């Protein structure tokens, strides 16, 4: 083992470089897949939580919805109010002891991170839906659309742009928080690093490498998400278009680039 810090770093990379790459790959897979599943859970919960009730709603609908709302609110509050490490231990070992259901570590990893993300996304989706102007919902209902149709085709496409930063934030958090899954034996980046560090008692050097890898993963993902956010914003200037053959506004009216206006001022 070399005597210098950078020498030991180089030695560890030569001996265990592929182990770090493998651990980083598993971490990224768990984070990305679980974030996607968590977003789907969040959208479903968010849609159910925003189903309207009026005084004219039938009593069975009111009873069922209030029971479902209570269950969903309990789910959101519990998973937002407890650490994911505790959730991992509780679910993984609790399922085996109470229901004799022995999860594989991979299934447990995806399941735990997904439902944790879903709890946070549910509140994000609810806030995003409420941020859309009520006139959009009223207009959709006026043409006969149901609540689910209104959410899917009218409200959620507009709310998605508002909640996109939070989706990216959840992905970044999941990349970092997958390290807690090591307590149930999931072989991700942190678990791999502990094994490498313990082999030569080079904890400082091994975790220096791991810290850099985590930073590369999170920084790259954040840049990619920023790119897609920019694409969702569309062009800074655009033409008004119409299907009315009697009025040809396309090409006649153009909203100038705001940056150019600011520069002129």
Features of this protein?
single chain; 265 residues; mainly alpha; 75% helix; elongated
Can you offer a commentary on this structure?
This protein is mostly helical and 265 residues long.
Q: Helix and strand succession?
A: HHHHHHHHH
Q: Span from first to last CA?
A: 64 Å
Counting DSSP H or I runs of 4 or more residues, the number of helices is 9
Task: Please tally the β strands and state the result.
Answer: 0
Provide the helix percentage.
over 70%
Overall mean pLDDT: 84
Shape call: elongated
Gyration radius (Cα, Å) is 25 Å
Return the structural class.
mainly alpha
From the structure provided, what is the oligomeric state, counting identical versus distinct chains?
A: single chain
Largest sheet: none
Strand content: under 5%
User: What are the segments in which pLDDT stays under 50 over at least 5 consecutive residues?
Assistant: 244-255
């Amino acid at each position: 083992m070399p005597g210098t810090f950078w020498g030991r770093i180089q030695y560890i990379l030569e001996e265990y470089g592929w182990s770090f790459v493998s651990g980083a790959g598993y971490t990224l897979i768990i984070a990305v897949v679980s974030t996607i599943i968590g977003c789907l859970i969040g959208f479903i919960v968010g849609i159910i939580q925003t189903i309207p009730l009026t005084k004219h709603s039938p009593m069975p609908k009111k009873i069922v919805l209030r029971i479902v709302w209570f269950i969903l609110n309990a789910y959101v509050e519990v998973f937002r109010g407890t650490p994911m490490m505790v959730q991992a231990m509780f679910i993984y070992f609790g399922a085996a002891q109470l229901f004799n259901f022995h999860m594989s570590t991979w299934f447990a990893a995806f399941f735990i991170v997904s439902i944790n993300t879903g709890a946070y996304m549910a509140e994000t989706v609810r806030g995003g839906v409420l941020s859309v102007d009520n006139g959009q919902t009223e207009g959709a209902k006026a043409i006969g659309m149901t609540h689910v149709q209104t959410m899917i085709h009218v409200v959620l496409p507009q709310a998605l742009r508002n909640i996109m930063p939070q989706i990216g934030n959840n992905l970044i958090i999941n990349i970092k928080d997958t390290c807690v899954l090591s307590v149930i034996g999931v072989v991700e980046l942190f678990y791999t690093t502990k094994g490498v560090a313990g082999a030569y008692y080079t904890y400082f050097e091994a975790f220096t490498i791991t810290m850099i890898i985590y930073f590369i993963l999170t920084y790259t993902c954040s840049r990619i998400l920023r790119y897609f956010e920019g694409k969702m914003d569309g062009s800074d200037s655009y033409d008004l278009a119409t299907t009315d053959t009697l009025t040809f506004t396309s090409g006649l009216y153009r909203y100038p680039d705001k940056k150019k206006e600011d520069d002129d001022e």
